[in-house]
Amino acid sequence: MTNPARPPRLRRGVTALALAALVGSGLAIPLASPASATPEALATAAVPAVPEGSLVTTGTPWKYLDTNVDPAAGAQDRNAWTAPEFDDSGWATAASGFGVKKNELAAVGPYMPATKLAHYIDGDSKNTVPTYFFRTTVELATGVASEVDAVSASIIHDDAARVFVNGQKVAGFLDSRVDDTLPSNLQYAGESKGDPVVSNFTIDPALLHDGANTIAVAVYQDRETSSDAYFDMTKLQLTPKTDEGGGTEPVIAAPTRVILTPTETPATSQSFSWLAGDETHTTGQVEIGLATGGDTRVAKAAAVGAVNGNAKEHFSATVEDLTPATTYRYRVGTEGSMSEWYTFTTETPGATDFQFVYYGDAQIGLDTTWPAVVAQAEAKAPRSIGSVHAGDLINTGSNDTEWLNWFKGMERSATSTNVMAAPGNHEYSGDKTLASWKAHFEYPLNQPSTETIGELAGRAQGDSDVARQYAAYFEHWADFAAETVYYTDYQGVRFITLNATRDTTFLKPANLPGCTGAECPSTKVQALWTEYQAAWLDFVLKESPSKWNVVTFHQPVYSTSSGRDEAVLREYWVPVFEENNIDLVLMGHDHTYGRGYKNDDTTDTRGMTVGPVYAVSNSGAKHYDLETEEKNVWTNNGATQVIRGERVTTYQVIDVTANQLTYRSYVAEKVNGSKSFKLTDTAAERPVYAAAEVPAVGEVFDEFTVTKYDTGEKWVTEPGVETPAGPALQLGAASVAQGDELQVSGSGFAPGSKIALELHSEPVALASVEVSEDRAFSTAVTIPANTPTDTEHELVAVLPNGKTVSTPLTVTAAETGGENPGGENPGGENPGETDTTPGGTTPGAGEHGGGKGSGSIATTGGASFVPLGIATLALLTAGGGLLLWRRRTAAAATADHTLG
Question: What was the pLDDT predicted at 129?
């Protein structure tokens, strides 16, 4: 972390009459002062200058020992060989880099060694030299050491490495397996990472002194049969102190690595992270306002650490009280050194249509393949609200250059849309506590805790050794899982991230209580960590308010590449995915492509399934081989791949609408040997696949649709397969009179479900029906006689889950009738006023002439008029009934309304 109390830097204007530091030779050559120099100039010349440039590079001479001999054998201190006074005169001397590949001087990954190391003990290829030792010296002229403010360094190593300066350990990479309790330095340690790893680190300048400084490095092979080894130190650079008493003036430099990450409430809040533009920046802020202009406000940021040998501070801030569905402009940094203005838009609650992008491992080709992949994805997803990343964003978590390149590729999308990333195993490479991950990202702190893991929390209750161990693990994991296990909801989609890496080094609490026996959690840490997340996942799925649920993590539950099988993940996570019918399970790690389903989720229709979709993809330049069909993890564990591919780089765009997720995988890059295989037959004992040509760059590689209705029914369909229709109501007529019967039928409802039929606007229960196996029902309902006619109505089907399907309905006044001549006014609901005339009461105008359902007969003086009046009324009633019947028939033809 940047130290605000550092002395000021040496200004560039100060004359640097310096001593050149030579590496390995032990010599320091002073520069002569000119005879005509003034006393002031001589005084300036006496001030030592910190050497510029790197003091150690590729080609620097090193003493080395590759003879399977422990240099500290017999010494009380096994690190005695790292001390300046150690006698290394018997060691060989050569220029770096050092390496070996299958006992040959050959390239180790992308690096060609200058000096070959011995590889095998006694020529036995199954017994490699476990540890190599290297020493060199750096000479500093008198007075230089006290002027050094900081020291940064980089090494390339395969496999593990430890670095010492003047006998003090200053860095360790992939070295968690080195056992410091053993007396011997000859150990196998580290992790097989394929190509050599680049690691950056800093050295406390207080460890340096004037004169010779000893740099010592131990490099460990990870196993007896390791095929290669490599070591080089490419940088050891000193930073001078600034002028005494000059104060510390922040250097003007814009921040980098600006990124948006989601909160739990993306409609009203937003998180921001960035890397300071210079190490003199010790404070940070976000300035934010409406994109349309006007006033802005400033939010202070928290400093979250300097990592990976980069002295610049990382900052994060979360801004609250934003307005939904609003575009904001913002910039980040420190006063005087702010970024350019960027924009983002808050979530629009209730909206449904948007896109998001899914990336597999970027990891390799971060400065070439990765930016090209992102550019293609951005062009295909102009309505994207963000991206999900299935881990291994970089190759080495401690390599700052790789993080720099990853952010360069994401520079445009990360500043305008949210990034939802899961850590992979490579994020832990050289960074076991994920310090770099947590410095770069700010994620919701809704990780698992004892309150959200259900019955599993009960194991930590009690005073037994077993319970105390469970409590210690759960307490440690509740903190450790922060920002690696989380969720956020966005416009009907719950995005969930899991941490599938299971390294017992970082999973172990610092103070673990003792426990013996098979019941102790310490005997099953990897399985318990997986089960712990499964319990939390079940909780967040069951209480999810979102229609769609998408989960992302790194190592696949169904592996696609050769030699991989994550049985522990499959055991604990797949049952949760299936029980909760999660929609998309998006994974990485295997550097191949695969997509499919669990066999229990098939239907009678070929190309249609009903459960979760499992996908593995690769978005970088690293490629593995597909597993053979005989060893296919999917087939051998009750699942089927619909498509799989190798030597192909893809990105995926998912379109979200109210009732569908449309998933399309696009070819971003393909290399020699690219292959694709598509499912052709599932009727055989094992699935049958046919080879297919990998499409051209930019074309669709894979595609399917997930359709889900409010009934809860869901179908996953291949292109060309018809999806069952959604729930719809059909009415016997578009309008119905008060008190009349109405025929109601429905289609596309879940078989066996009970549907309540209601009349709205004010809910009035009409009937309850059960849906038949053909997903339909039909019944007659009676519209209440007192239903208002001056209000808009809907016929509503209430589903078991409380959601509704509705269609408009017009309610008219009850029909007039002729059965009661002395009844109410047939002309309207309210009777007219009495109009007396010499002949009697005028029909339709008097108290009895305008009532409901009947009318009075006007008499003018003779009984002979009565039969004629009755006949006339009967004809009028019949004519009105015929006209109403015709209108109903015409309306029924267009009264079929469908809602999803």
Answer: 96
